[in-house]
Specification:
Layout (H helix, E strand, L loop, with lengths): L4 E4 L2 E4 L3 H14 L6 H8 L3 H5 L5 H26 L3 H17 L3 H10 L1 H27 L9 H13 L4 H5 L8
Antiparallel strand pairs: 1-2
Length: 184
C-alpha cells in the first residue's frame, strides 16, 4: 500500500503538502514565530494562501501544527534510536547528536515564543527533556556497571553537563566563544 498522506498534529495531510510544512518549520525555527507570515511562506513557495487555509483555519493553528510536527519528528528519531541501539555509549552519543542537530537550527527567540504562545507544546518538550534525562541517567549508570564509564563520576553531574551542553546550542554567545567551531 502506498502512503498518500502524512500526519501533522491531528490532521492527515497529502504528501505533497510535506514541503510546505518543512519550509514553514525552517522559517519558524530560524526567524521566530512572530516574524513568520503565511503571506511570505506562500510567496516563497509560489502557492495560494487558500491552499494553507484549506487545511488550517488560522495562522496560529498552522504554526501549532508545524511546531508539533517539528518536535514529533525529534521525539520519534530519539525513540527509534532507543529501539535500535544496544551499544550504551553509541546511544548516548547519537542521542546527543540528534538533539543538538535538531535544536541547533532554532533561533533563541523561537524557544522563547514557543514557551510564551504555545505552552501545550512546550509542556511536551519539557516532558521529553525530563524523560530523556532519566533515560540518559539510567544508561550512564548501566555503562558504569559495565566499566564503560568511571564509577567515581556522579551520574546526575554527568547528565547535567550533557544536557547543559545540548541546551547551550541555543546560546549564540556560547557557540561564538568556542574558536574551534568557527575556523576560517
Amino acid at each position: 500500500m502506498i502512503q498518500k498522506t502524512f500526519p501533522v498534529a491531528d490532521k492527515e495531510l497529502p504528501l505533497s503538502f510535506r514541503p510546505v510544512i518543512e519550509h514553514a518549520r525552517t522559517q519558524i525555527m530560524q526567524n521566530g514565530i512572530r516574524s513568520f507570515t503565511i503571506e511570505k511562506l506562500t510567496a516563497e513557495l509560489r502557492m495560494s494562501k487558500k491552499t494553507i487555509y484549506k487545511y488550517f483555519t488560522s495562522k496560529e493553528e498552522f504554526v501549532e501544527a508545524v511546531l508539533r510536527y517539528n518536535f514529533d519528528d525529534l521525539f520519534s528519531k530519539v525513540e527509534k534510536l532507543l529501539e535500535e541501539s544496544d551499544d550504551l555509549l553509541q546511544h548516548i552519543y547519537h542521542s546527543i547528536y540528534i538533539i543538538s542537530n535538531h535544536l541547533s537550527v532554532m533561533n533563541s527567540n523561537s524557544v522563547y515564543e514557543i514557551k510564551l504562545y504555545y505552552p501545550n507544546i512546550w509542556n511536551r518538550v519539557e516532558q521529553f527533556r525530563n524523560s530523556f534525562m532519566n533515560d540518559l541517567t539510567s544508561r550512564i549508570k548501566k555503562a558504569q556497571t559495565l566499566g564503560l564509564i568511571r564509577k567515581d563520576i556522579k551520574t546526575d553531574f554527568l547528565t547535567g553537563i550533557i544536557v547543559g551542553v545540548v541546551q547551550n546550542v541555543f546560546n549564540r554567545n556560547f557557540l561564538s566563544n568556542i574558536p574551534i567551531l568557527f575556523r576560517k
